[in-house]
């Protein structure tokens, strides 16, 4: 989906669809994890964003033969789709069905291709049937695609080392890591998760703490003076439960220039954080 835009994601209108998509994305995450060696920061459990939706990317089944496959959520045609390097395809329409049903159907199709993911099915045991609104799913994908495009531009702007822009199945958020280049005092340098100073820039569809979709920026370790930095309105500092900068998606969607507001937010927080980290 190439057109950028930030459509309204009204919580009351799309919660069942959001929860269904979250469950379906977790299926992709578990399949990817089964075929991807562990990576720093858990990147082996995360997903890419393709032209049609979240995807596992190519997963190698046999290095000698080159056999591989990919699973994606096609939010343009509203299907979960698996394809393999032999040209075979499996697909199932997304209709709010239980995650267990969708996972069982996918795994059965993979077995028929002689692909045997080691997936803990108890983690995909959701039996609930939800209301699924394809139009709401497409609005979400339009928003996700827009954020993904903007985050890719932000990644190119950032100095130094960054991670990939990835969708995280557990929290259902799209994020990007930036590293200051400094080690955290007192932390084992071999600790791939926590040894380096870093900031995370993310987009969440909402959670128990903040039900509506929002943008966040966090830092590790947290510079205590960071909350003294000014933020472009209506962004604010969040300190309950987690510390970081918070900007509600609804405020971005309502802005005259959503991209300009998001870029101002990213630059303001990063500039303040970078100055404190590099002191």
Question: What characteristics describe this protein?
Answer:
279 residues; alpha+beta; 2 domains; six-stranded antiparallel β-sheet; four-stranded antiparallel β-sheet; 5 helices; 12 strands; 32% helix
Classify the beta-strand content into a percent band. 15-25%
Q: Which class of secondary structure composition applies to the elements?
A: alpha+beta
Order of helices and strands: HEEEEEEHHEEEEEEHH
Oligomer: single chain
Gap from first CA to last CA: 42 Å
Please mark out the parts with pLDDT under 50 across 5 or more consecutive residues, or reply none. none
Radius of gyration: 19 Å
Biggest pleated sheet: 6 strands, antiparallel
Count the domains: 2
Number of helices: 5
Principal-axes geometry comes out as globular
Q: Write down the overall mean pLDDT.
A: 93
Strand ordering within the main sheet: 7-8-9-10-12-11
In which range does the helix fraction lie? 25-40%
Number of strands: 12
Structural features, described:
- The chain contains 5 helices and 12 strands.
- It is an alpha+beta fold.
- The protein folds into 2 domains: 11-124; 171-277, no CATH class.
- The strands form 3 sheets. A 6-stranded antiparallel β-sheet has the order 7-8-9-10-12-11. Strands 3-4-5-6 form a 4-stranded antiparallel β-sheet.
- A hairpin with a 4-residue loop joins strand 7 (166-168) and strand 8.
- The chain is globular and about 55 Å long.
- The chain starts with 10 loop residues before the first helix and ends with a helix.
- The mean pLDDT is 93.
């Amino acid at each position: 989906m190439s057109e950028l835009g930030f459509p309204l994601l009204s919580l009351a209108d799309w919660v069942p669809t959001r929860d269904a998509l979250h469950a379906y994305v977790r299926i992709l995450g578990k399949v990817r994890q089964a075929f991807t060696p562990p990576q720093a920061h858990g990147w082996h459990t995360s997903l890419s964003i393709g032209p049609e939706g979240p995807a596992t990317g190519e997963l190698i089944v046999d290095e000698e033969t080159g056999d591989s496959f990919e699973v994606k959520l096609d939010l343009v045609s509203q299907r979960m789709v698996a394809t393999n390097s032999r040209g075979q395809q499996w697909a199932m329409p997304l209709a709010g069905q239980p995650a267990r049903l969708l996972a069982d159907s996918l795994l059965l199709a993979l077995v028929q291709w002689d692909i045997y993911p080691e997936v803990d099915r108890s983690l995909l045991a959701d039996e609930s049937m939800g209301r699924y609104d394809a139009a709401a799913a497409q609005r979400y994908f339009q928003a996700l695609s827009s954020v993904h495009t903007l985050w890719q531009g932000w990644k190119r702007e950032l100095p130094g080392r960054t991670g990939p822009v990835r969708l995280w199945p557990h929290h259902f958020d799209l994020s990007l890591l930036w590293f200051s280049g400094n080690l955290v005092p007192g932390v084992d340098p071999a600790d791939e998760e926590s040894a380096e100073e870093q900031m995370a820039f993310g987009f969440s569809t909402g959670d128990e703490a903040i039900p509506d979709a929002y943008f966040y920026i966090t830092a590790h370790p947290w510079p205590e003076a960071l909350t003294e930095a000014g933020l472009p309105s209506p962004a604010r500092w969040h300190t309950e439960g987690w510390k970081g900068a918070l900007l509600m998606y609804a405020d971005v969607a309502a802005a005259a220039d959503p991209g300009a507001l998001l870029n101002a937010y990213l630059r303001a927080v990063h500039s303040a954080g970078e100055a404190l980290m590099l002191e």
